[in-house]
Amino acid sequence: MKIAVVLDHDPRLLNGASRQAGQFVQWLLGRGHQVHLVHTASGMHPPPSGSGLRVSTVPSFPVRSYREYRIPVPPAAARLWLARADVNLVHSETMNPTLLALAYWMKRRAGVPMFNVLTANLPYYTAILLPRDNLARKLVYGLGKPLMNAISNRIEGTFVLSDGMRDSLARRFFAIDPSRLFTWTRPLDPAAYAARREPSDVWGRLGVPRGRRVATLSRLCQSKNVEFLIRAFACHIIPRDPTLHLVVAGEGPNAGQLQRLAAGLGCANIHFPGLIPYDAVPAFLRDTDYFVYASLSETFGNAICEAKYAGVPVVALDDGGGVRSQIADRRTGILVASADEAEFARRFLALLGDEALREAIRREAREDVALMHSPERVYGNLMRIYQLAAEGALPGRSEIRRILAYPRLVPGATSSL
User: For residue 258, is pLDDT > 70?
Assistant: First the structure.
C-alpha cells in the first residue's frame, strides 16, 4: 500500500506520541508499504527519502512552554496543497485543525479513505500551549474546534487510545459522531525494547538499596501532576518509612518548581536526576522497585506500559483515560480512585507490605502487555482495516470494532467494545 502519514510533530522527538509514530512508520516500511511522511518541521534535518519513504515537512513555529512541540502552519506548505497525492490511504495523527484540513485535502485529491488518531488530551494541553486567554486561544476554540468536528465527521473514522478518552475528549471537548469513533491502542515492541541497551547508573550513584527504590518518569510539566507525588511521598510515605527514596526522572518547565517544593517539604529522599536517555529507560526501570504515576492527562501512557513490561509494580491515579485502560486494580497494578495524597500513600504502603501481591502484579502486568500490546496485533489489525478500506470494501463500524477488539486478560483492560 501507499500510505500518507500526517503528523503534528516530528517522529524523532522524545515524547511518547512522536516515538510511537516513528515506530509505526518503520513497521510499515519493514513490511513493504510505501510511506509519504508529512510532519511538522522541528529544526532537525528531515530523514532522507528513499527505500519506500518520502518525507515532506510543514512550516511551523515553536511553543515557548513546550519545546518538543511546534505549531504547524499548513497554509504555508503550498507545495503540499498543490501536489498530486499518490496514495491509497491517509493516516493522520493530529489535534491541529489546519493540519487535519491538509490531510483531508490529500484524501479528497486522491479519492481515498482517511483515518485520524487523537493523540493528546487537548483540554489539558491547551492551557500549556496557549496559557493566555488571547486572540490565538479564541481562534483555536472559535474556529479550530468546529473545523475539527466538521472534518472528523466526514472521514472514515477517528481513533482514540482508550475508552475513557473517547468520552472525555471526542464527545465532551469535540463533537464527533460516536459511530465514527473507535478505540485503538499503542504497541510495545519487545525487540525494540530489548535493543535499548544503554546502561543507567541513577540508582547506583544515589546508593539506594534494592527494595527502597521508587520512581516516576515523565515530562515535568503541569499536566503530569508530579507535585501530587512529591507531596504524597514527603508528607505521608516517608514519615512511615524513611528508608524509601523517590526519583523524579525527566525534564520540563516545572523542574525548578518541583525541586523547590521538595526542598520546602524538607524531604532529602526525593531526587531529580534529569532526563533519562531513551535507550537507558529499560535499564533504569530494571533497577527500580516501584513506579508511581499521577498524570490525569494521558491518552495512553507509554511510561505505564513500559513499567509493566519491565515487571515494576505500578501505583497510579485513576485518570479515567489511558492509565485506567492499562491498570486493573490489584491485577496489573494499583489504581487509586481518589486524588487524595493520604489515600495514595495508604495504597502504596499496603503494596509495600504485601510481597505476594507484588509478585502477582509483576507477572500479570507483563503478560497483559504481551497480550494486549503486541505490534503484530496492534498494527496488524489496523492494517487489516486499512487494506479493506483501500480496496473499497471498508468494513461496517461494528466490524471495525470487532477487528480492533483486544483480548482482555483482566477486567478494565482497553477494549473497543
Answer: yes
* More reliable by pLDDT, 43 or 196: 196
Partners of residue 74 on adjacent β-strands: none
Domain limits, the chain: 2-187+374-404, 199-372
Q: How many residues appear in the chain?
A: 417
CATH T-level fold of 2-187+374-404: Rossmann fold (3.40.50)
Q: Are the beta carbons of 40 and 60 closer than 8 angstroms?
A: yes
2-187+374-404 shares its CATH topology with 199-372 = yes
d(C-alpha 75, C-alpha 302), whole Å: 32
Residue 117 forms beta bridges with which residues? 93, 159
Place of cell 491485577: 331
Q: How far apart are CA 94 and CA 389, in angstroms?
A: 21
Predicted confidence at residue 172, as pLDDT, reads 66
Cα(302)–Cα(151) distance, integer angstroms: 28
Q: Which residue reads 475508552 in cell numbers?
A: 163
Angle at 122 between CA 374 and CA 386, to 5 degrees: 40
Phi, psi of 129 (to 5 degrees): -70, -35
Cα 327 from Cα 411, distance rounded (Å): 9
Instruction: Give backbone dihedrals phi and psi of 57, rounded to 5 degrees, phi first.
Output: -115, 150
Of 329, 208, 209, 182, the closest CA to residue 269 belongs to 208
Query: In what helix (H) or strand (E) does residue 352 lie, and over which residues does it extend?
Result: helix 341-352
CATH number at 199-372: 3.40.50.2000
